[in-house]
Amino acid sequence: MKTWRMGSGDPQRNAQGRLCHLLTLEGLRDVEIIELLDTAASFLDLGSRTVKKIPLLRGRTIVNLFYENSTRTRSTFELAAKRLSADVLNMAIASSSVNKGETLLDTVDNLLAMQVDGFILRHSEAGAAHLLARHLGEQAWVVNAGDGQHAHPTQALLDLFTIRHLVGPIHERVVLILGDVLHSRVARSLIQGLSILGCPQIRVLGPRTLVPPELVHLGVHVFQDDRAALEGVDVLYALRMQKERMDVQPLPSLEEYHRRFGLTPERIRLAAPGAVILHPGPMNRGVELTSELADGPQALILDQVTHGLALRMAVLARLAGGSG
Ligand code: CP
């Protein structure tokens, strides 16, 4: 299966081929993803211990650099770093010199002069994390925490972890992604990850205006009919309407979207018995899914958040050299 391409070369590996940044799942080998998922599994029970800390990254300094809003990704990266005993600097972009016109690279160079070890970057521009990784080389590592519509690799990894941990082997499951795929960096990364781990059928359901036509060339099965799309599906992955990334209104109304494509108890009965619901958050209740489903037993949405913490610990451990 082909995947989205961005630029040439592999800016997330060093000359020896070692992963020195995490920018995208594109180009990762299945064994590399599985190793990250296995490491995350080893960290999962740390949260239920009285002392939720291990000394793996003691003495390291990690910067959270979020140019876009975040609840889950920023908080779990901060907690992941702290549970590994690293020091964390949360840059408050709104009150920083970014507001005086300082560029991303100048901001990073100044933070690098404070001898930090790595950056977690979220940015509205696709390619921002690649730019930063190329700029830094091996001086410090970069994790892409979401760049525009391009990629959100740690979200996809925690989704893969959740499916593997709570549903079953990915190479035996049918996954349906519903909604605004066009604007979704989550969907792009998830499709790449599912494909690398051998998911036998990746389906997409959504309005024509929100499903990129090139998906069919990547081996993804595109549906407009909900009944056909839902039949035999094990994992339903609902996406948020990314209104902040829409130049024109792609739908008559959100009510119309919910009526045709939203997850409802009636609609989910068309899926495989025991089908589960995932959502990256934040949710729009009553749009992509009903509150009844969001809070019901089939929803693994808060499990995804718990797994995200363990998964991000695994990523930090890997990049900082403590594991793998
Ligand atoms: N899924 C996700 O990226 O959520 P946040 O925007 O809250 O980080």
Structure characteristics:
11 helices; globular; 4-stranded parallel β-sheet; binds phosphoric acid mono(formamide)ester; 5-stranded parallel β-sheet; 2 domains; Rossmann fold; alpha/beta; 324 residues; disordered N terminus
Structure description:
The structure is a single chain. The protein is of the alpha/beta class. It folds into 2 domains: 30-150 and 305-320, Aspartate/ornithine carbamoyltransferase (Rossmann fold), CATH 3.40.50; 153-302, 3-Layer(aba) Sandwich (Rossmann fold). 34% of the residues lie in helices and 14% in strands. The protein has 11 helices and 9 strands. The protein has helices spanning 30-43, 72-83, 104-112, 128-136, 153-166, 185-196, 226-230, 254-261, 265-268, 291-294, 301-319; strands at residues 61-66, 87-91, 118-123, 141-147, 174-178, 201-205, 221-223, 235-238, 276-278. The strands form 2 sheets. It has a 5-stranded parallel sheet. Helix 6 links the parallel strand 5 and strand 6 (201-205). Helix 2 packs across helix 11 (301-319) and helix 5 (153-166) packs across helix 11. The radius of gyration is 19 Å and the shape is globular. Phosphoric acid mono(formamide)ester binds next to helix 2.
